[in-house]
Every structure is written in C-alpha cells, then in structure tokens.
Design brief:
Length: 51
C-alpha cells in the first residue's frame, strides 16, 4: 500500500490497531520510503526494492 504522508499519519495508526485486533496472528511491516523523482508509482513501475 502506498499513501500520502498526511493520510498515513492520521489514518494508518487507527487502521493498524483495528487490523491487529481482528487478525492478531498477522504481522504488518510499515516502511517509509523517500518520495523522490517519480514517487511511489515510479518506484513500483521500475521494480525498485520493496515493490
């Protein structure tokens, strides 16, 4: 998933809490990547690490 910083900062914590309560055996890893050049879409399209 990719998100704007503002959305991730305000919405993601609550979503992750509810997800963890619903699926306690699941593990979620959050990775912050720099938004440089073509941004997240460009990183995914070029096969950058983590995509």
């Amino acid at each position: 998933m990719a998100a704007f910083r503002s959305a991730a900062f305000h919405l993601l914590p609550g979503v992750l809490v509810r997800f963890g309560q619903r699926y306690p055996k699941m593990t979620v890893t959050v990775r912050i990547v720099p938004d440089l050049g073509r941004g997240s879409r460009g990183r995914r399209r070029t096969g950058a690490p983590g995509w």
